[in-house]
Design brief:
Helix content is 73%, strand content 0%. With 378 residues, it is an all-alpha fold. The chain is rod-shaped, with a radius of gyration of 40 Å.
Length: 378
């Protein structure tokens, strides 16, 4: 019949298809070794639809259609051969299919070989992430992405998504990851991930490399026990742009790090308003320490900045010296730094129980031409 028919292509096609239906692989090979006109592509599609995998493997091997051969080999459970077929096909869809099949079979080493070809394609990365995560294979997904970060085609989304995974599944290693790869990642997304995972030290670090100094200081103040880093805070507050953040920092130090308060005040003094700073210090713990609050604890700061001869600072220093009963110190202060309300201070001192302080009042009156008051006090 074949030799007499004009439509040899149809006859040959049906002969091969029939042999496939009967799973006669040796007969198929023998027929295909001879000259024939069979439409192997049509046969391949039909046997795949009918899940005749062994004949399909033979047909696609002859056709050298490695993409479809990879699909067939996956169905047959021959994952190593499927990886080799995907390698020859070198198409993303083939790599992805074999990768996912290997994941399902828990052949993670082979899955990683294929996955590395997929994750470098930004449009396909989300498919890989979703497939692994839906099946709970977080460690294997992170191993895949870790291996991919050193590839020449590694892109920002790979670094970013791997960083997000670290915050969720390996928080103890998150800081190391952030320090190593932040320059190649989407930092705002990593910050959000750290905040969602309550990784405040990592969030503060990322804010610092992103140069959002107000946020660095705010995170440390709001989450001090886990985020605190004294040197980073000092650096951040010196570069902060918000005065409110600076004043909040002073209150935070008063409550949490009083031993470092003088250092902070020195850093803030060029930007912050002296009146506001002194008001905060005078108002802190006023019930416990009196009307000066914790101002006397900041004497080292006042000594450091009094050279600026600012009225508020001079006034604060004079109050501290009076409270301490340091007459000699007060004399030096009013002599060296005269930018303060001298007559007001003289009026305060003229009734002081200590004679030495009253003499300072006399000197101030004389200095301001108030000789009658000087005589009355003397």
């Amino acid at each position: 019949i074949r030799n007499k028919s004009k439509d040899i292509r149809t006859i040959d096609t049906e002969i091969v298809y029939g042999l496939c239906r009967q799973q006669k692989l040796a007969d198929i090979e023998e027929f295909l070794a001879l000259p024939h006109a069979a439409d192997l592509e049509d046969i391949g599609e039909r046997v795949m639809d009918e899940e005749l995998w062994f004949p399909a493997k033979l047909i696609f091997t002859v056709l050298k259609d490695n993409g479809k051969l990879a699909v067939v080999l996956v169905r047959l459970g021959d994952f190593k051969a499927a990886v080799e077929a995907a390698k020859k096909a070198d198409r993303v869809n083939a790599w992805k299919l074999v990768c996912f099949a290997c994941v399902d079979a828990k052949e993670f080493r082979l899955a990683q070989q294929c996955g590395l070809k997929v994750v470098v394609e930004a449009a396909d990365l989300s498919d890989v992430l979703e497939y692994y995560e839906d099946r709970g294979h977080f460690a294997q997904l992170m191993d895949l992405l870790d291996a991919g970060l050193t590839l020449e085609r590694a892109h920002q989304a790979m670094f970013t998504e791997n960083g997000v995974l670290y915050t969720k599944h390996k928080p103890e290693r998150s800081m190391d990851f952030m320090k190593m790869w932040w320059q190649k990642a989407n930092v705002p997304r990593l910050i959000r991930a750290c905040e969602a995972a309550w990784l405040w030290a990592e969030a503060a670090y990322l804010y610092s490399v992103y140069e959002e100094w107000d946020n660095v200081a705010t995170v440390m103040m709001e989450h001090g026990p886990s985020a605190w880093n004294a040197s980073l805070f000092t650096d951040a507050i010196s570069k902060a742009g918000s005065l409110e953040v600076m004043y909040k920092a002073v209150r935070f130090y008063v409550c949490e790090h009083a031993e470092l308060l003088n250092d902070l005040l020195i850093v803030l003094s060029p930007k912050a308003e002296a009146t506001r700073l002194m008001g905060i210090l005078r108002g802190s713990y006023r019930e416990e320490y009196g009307e000066l609050g914790i101002l006397p604890l900041c004497k080292a700061f006042l000594n450091k900045v009094q050279d600026e001869n600012v009225p508020e600072l001079n006034h604060a220093m004079n109050d501290v010296l009076i409270a301490e009963g340091d007459v000699d110190g007060l004399k030096d202060s009013v002599s060296s730094f005269d930018n303060f309300e001298q007559l007001s201070l003289a009026a305060r001192l003229e009734t002081h129980e200590t004679l030495a302080f009253r003499r300072v009042a006399i000197d101030l009156y004389r200095r301001n031409g108030k000789f009658e008051q000087a005589v009355e006090v003397s």
